[in-house]
Here is the input.
Amino acid sequence: MKGIGIILASNPGYSETFLMNKISYLKKAGLQVIVFADRDRNARIKDCKTVIAHQVAETAWIRFLKIGWVILYTTLVHPAACTRFFLSELKDGRSWLVACKNLYRSCHVFGYSLAWIHFEFATLALGRENLCRAVKARMAVSVRGFDISLYPLSHPNCYILLWKRVDKLHSISDDLYLEALRQGFPAEKPWVKITPAINTDIVKPKMNLGLIGNPVKVVSVGRLEWKKGFEYAIRAICLLKQVGISIEYRIVGEGSERESLAYSIVQQQLQHEVILKGRLSHSETLQVMHEADIYLQPSVQEGFCNALIEAQATGLLCIATNAEGLSENVINEESGWIVPKVNPHALAKKIQEVIELPAAVRKGIAENAIHRVNSNFRLESQVRQFNDFYAN
Here is the structure.
């Protein structure tokens, strides 16, 4: 049986449990899965073969020799695949130099018998649109958020060739599929929505659903970067403090915006209210969730968000913005609440409204959220969907 090749920028890391879970469960389901990573930055997935791409040397003359040797060796060992690759590149109007560069980035995949090559982010397929043709595999591409909503803003028409080559598109939400259509994806080509999922055997509901303490404990989980919208959440906490609400806000995660967020916390005199918890293990993160009352997802752009699914499974009262897939993740007024993005006043108002709701109403929302996650976002269901995805 031919395998499934998964193309990643690097081995799945701390914030990419959704990829580790998918690959591990596909392996358990009996599929032959090989991970092809551009860089070797994290621990390998257990019992899964990982192939790392050829790295580029820093010294110019060593880089020239290495690239030349790798291309020559690949051409000698896989002449038919290399011929198909180069002919496709030249037919697409690329120069020999660009074709050689693209081959160098892709040739670690040559030599493996693959039924599908799945680019887990659309940006990873750029420059490698002809790889699947070369190795005679079908091409799958996922759109997950940044790759379809933000990257094309600074790289217009970047996916024109990719849309011609892809055999099947995977989107994690309806909204991202619509964005792919706006970016030129042909409506007649097949696509499947498969949402992220979590291991519900690990994520268990907390006690005392719907109860809110004093101070109110609020938590968010995510990389500290602009698109997560934590700046707006911090402003919302400031607004709540101004009206006399006692609140503790914990942000779990690490990233490039740490200094900016820390400065904002000091400027708004929220050192006692807002704590940047940094990077925690998955079990430690779940513990912080169990200790909280409200989960906040203030994103400016978000494909779907696994942490928000876990927060609902925990029974937290979840408030999220209307950024892309979040409105499909949380059902407004049923399993949580949706507010406009980039709007700290809306966040603060909704937090206050949730605090003032009767405890029985809050408990009902929390129970709805737990039931919905168990019904719609289980890993077992996701794996069955991907089995069908690769089978058809």
Q: What stands out?
A: Residues 93 and 136 are 21 Å apart (CA to CA).
